[in-house]
Amino acid sequence: MDLENDKQRLEEKIKKAEFESNQIRTKCEDEQALIAQLSKKIKELLARIEELEEELEAERAAKAKSEKARMEISRELEEFAERLDVATNATTSQIEKSKKRDAELAKLARDMEELTLAQESQIVSLRNGVLVSNEAFWRP
């Protein structure tokens, strides 16, 4: 009986050991599957990190390019503002000259009108004087 009990205990131990071995094997397989899954996820994340780094570098390059363009546009804007100031000053000066010329022309026109009126008045006076003289000459 001792042999049978020992055999039975050994068989139970073997079954228990096989059961534990199967559990460990299953756990090991699960962990290997998890490791494979995590390794795949790590590779995907590393690839995504690389993509993001490339995008970041591209964005930095684009930002530098746009900043350079912005500075160029600012410089051009300053140049245009300076040119506009110069043109405005020239235009203002030209307007002042035109106003002076217009005033001079208006004065000359007034003077000419006055002279014309004075001349016409003199002509009328002379004609009246000549007519008066001629009438006296023709009267007997």
What does this protein look like?
The radius of gyration is 58 Å and the shape is rod-shaped. It is mainly alpha-helical. The mean pLDDT is 91. It has one helix at residues 2-138. It is built from one helix and no strands.
What's the main sheet like? none
Count of helical regions: 1
Mean pLDDT: 91
The ordered H/E elements are: H
- The first-to-last residue Cα distance is 199 Å
Low-confidence stretches are: none
Instruction: Provide the β-strand percentage band.
Output: under 5%
Kindly name the structural category. mainly alpha
Give the overall shape, derived from the CA principal axes.
Answer: rod-shaped
Q: How many strand units?
A: 0
Please estimate the helix content.
Answer: over 70%
Q: How large is the radius of gyration?
A: 58 Å
Task: Summarize the entry for a quick read.
With 140 residues, this protein is mainly alpha-helical. The chain contains one helix and no strands. The chain has one helix spanning 2-138.
List the helices and strands and how they pair.
Layout: H1 2-138
Structural key phrases:
140 residues; mainly alpha; 1 helix; 98% helix; 0% strand; rod-shaped
